[in-house]
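hey m, so remember when u said the tokens were messed up on ur end? i reran from scratch. heres the input so u can diff it against urs
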Amino acid sequence: MKRLSLELAIEALTGATLSGPGVPLRDAVIDSREVSPGALFVALRGEQTDGHDYVAQAFERGARAALVERDGLGNWPVIDTRRPVSPGLTMPAQVCLRVADVMAAMQQIARYWRSKLSLRVIGITGSVGKSTTKEVTAELLERRYRTLKNPGNLNNEIGLPLTVLKLSDFHSRAVLEMGFYVPGEVALLCDIARPQVGVVTNIGPVHLERAGTMEAIVAGKRELVESLPAAPEGVAILNYDDERVRQMAGHTTARVFTYGLSPRADLWADAIVGLGLDGVRFALHHGGEQEHIRVPMLGQHSVHTALRAAAVGLVEGLSWEEILSGLQQTHAQLRLVAVPGPGGSILLDDTYNASPDSTIAALNLLAELEGRRLAVLGDMLELGSYEEAGHRMVGARAAAVADELLTVGPRARWIAEEATRAGLPASHVVHVESAEQAVKALRVRVGAGDVILVKGSRGMHMDQIVDELAEGTS
């Protein structure tokens, strides 16, 4: 199996072609604790720690090489890639590769390695639903193809190249989530990964505080479809139901394939029935064909996730049998999970992160479930100028769904105010400032048969509420 080699890494940095069979680099990591024999250790400087302080530990664990920016790190041989390298160079058992910028060097090696591989790359971006779409899509493609995906949320200028460096000629497909904070970031990731297929989920005010304007968010997400090769090799899979995404069709030379709930989309769904914790049922339509399916994903918003994965499957040549059986049997780790709560209640743990759109989607799932419904909603961060409006929109929906509402954090007070204004009795609305206070308030309110949705931005530590209340931990 052909893997990235130390010689190819040096060639990527210097342009010098080295002779010899090549010493494989079995992995690339930024945490010395994750080093395995044969790894490339990337000594990044972080806000809290400096990878250069752990080079010795990486070599002790069997690292083959380390990317470094400075000398004097130990007695290991150093190859200075900033200077001409001899084609007859003999590789030491362990070596430091001296570079001007470790992150840029890692990205350059990943870019070069990707250019040496013949495979199809599916890039996924959007404001909400990227990770779930990545997981379901990768699992679907694995029914026919050897597929690699970003682990966890490694979707940025560090995580994506690390994933690319794990590729080998064993793989024929890669599914890569592409995160976004500012314009230019997705373009950089596309320059490294060279996707032939681009999937855009939706556009919302997530990270608006950093991006500055909705126009900047649209432009940043659009970089994926702009980077795709022309048809027929390139395919842009776009959400027909989101006008901002639909308009991206005019910004790509790739073939456009649309999905959504409208019959005008190339792949569309109707007859949607939410089954609560048992999933969702719907009909799929494409090219005159109709297929009925039930998927084990929670919430009617999961229909769009299934549509995106199915669209990739169709574009990549999977049969309907493979697509339907894959969606029905998906084991992808979804972020919203149901866990037993105190006193016979059910906790819906959706604490990974929150935006107005994803919170309303979670509330829509709550509306499908039987029992007394409690919504525990925390601040949604990084919404910029949309901050108050986004929280108030969630409050209005919470009033229509929840029997009781508990809000957490200074911004979430807008949720509470709007819910009361929309008709939820004030006696059924409680506001607190922290997760710890929320736990105390819930302990005296939760009973058998209650369903409690817990959601908020990661910075609000809403996961602590679930940890404290989950059955067996309190």
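this time it looks ok to me. The chain has three domains: 6-101, 117-328, 337-469. if urs says something different then somethings off w ur setup not the seq
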